[in-house]
Each structure stands twice: as structure tokens, then as C-alpha cells.
Amino acid sequence: MLGALSDAWQEHLPWYPGDWVWPVLLGLVIAAIGATAAIALAHDGDGGKTIVATGGGPPHTPTTPAATGTVPLPTVPQGTPTATTAPPQAPTTTTPRTPGTLVSWPAARSGYTVVLESIPTRAGRSFAVARARAASRAGLPQVGVLDSGRFSSLHAGYFVVFSGVYPSRPAADEARSAANGKGFGAAYARQITR
User: Fold this and answer.
1) 3-class secondary structure, 168
2) Regarding predicted confidence, which is higher, 12 or 102?
3) Which end of the chain is more exposed for a tag (fewer CB within 10 A), N or C?
4) Exposed, middle or buried, 119 (CB in 10 Å: 0-12/13-18/19+)?
5) Which tens digits make up the pLDDT trace of 153-183?
């Protein structure tokens, strides 16, 4: 068969590269067909669904930072308080920080947190940090960014913007309600384990 193909080539064209050209052309045709099929399947198979880094909440697409954003500042009462100071209370797991500062997840510690957003790593860590700083400025406690690939309870490939480190799910659920009230409607409680 290759002999007939080479004869036909030589009848129409003065130059013949050799018999090696036929397997190469066959391979190119197979590769083109395979690439076309893969593109068609990838386009039809995704169904427009967004993949999120963690379970436990409704899927949502990553948000982009607003062009301009303002956070209303609380009013400060004037005058001197007349009540006596309250007795000291037991420390909580969330400590207030300067707005805009971020925290790291405690080393070798598992616990619960409020996932504010799951941002694909292709969007970049700087975008996730900007979203975390906005959450911190909005008054959410202990805001930081996790690389989901470093935690066994999370799906790899995301930067997870979180708020708080809590010892129990009910405590994280209560904090989730506060996050929802501050504009993070898709926030949900999630256990974090290394």
C-alpha cells in the first residue's frame, strides 16, 4: 500500500520525502481528531458548574473586588461612661486585631472556621489577600488565607479566605451568621484539619 501511495505522490510532485512521511501524516490526522474530540467533550461536559474548594455550603463563583468600596464606620458615643468596668471574662478564641491585618492558621491545629470565599489559585494569592483584607476591614475577626492544598479537609487548588478559629461547629455557625450580616452571604462553617 505504501508503494502505491509513494507512486501517486511522485506522479504529481517532483519531490518525495520518503516512506516515513505516511506514518507521520497518519499520526497527525489521529492527533487532530483526538484534539477535536477532547475540546468538544470539555466544552459540553462542564455544564457551566463552578467547582468550590470545600463542601458544606452552596457553590458560588469567586467574586471580584468592587471598583470602590466603603465600609461604614461605627459611631462612637461621646462623654464619659458612668458604669463600672465589667469583671474580666475568659478569653475567646478570636481576638480583635487592627482592621486589614491578616492571621495565619495556627500550626498543627485543627478546628472550625468560617469560609468566606474559595478562590482558584489561578486567580493569584494577591487577589485572595485583597479579599481577606476587605473582610478584616469589614470587622470580621481573625481573617486570613489558607492554601487548600496544605489541609486534608480541603480540595487542593484554591486559596480559602477564612475568618476565626473556633473549637466547635456551633461556635463557627454563630460566627457565620455574623459574616452573612457583613456582606458575606455565601459564607459557611467548615472544619479544618491538617
Assistant:
1) coil
2) 102
3) N
4) buried
5) 888 889 988 988 898 899 988 888 888 888 8
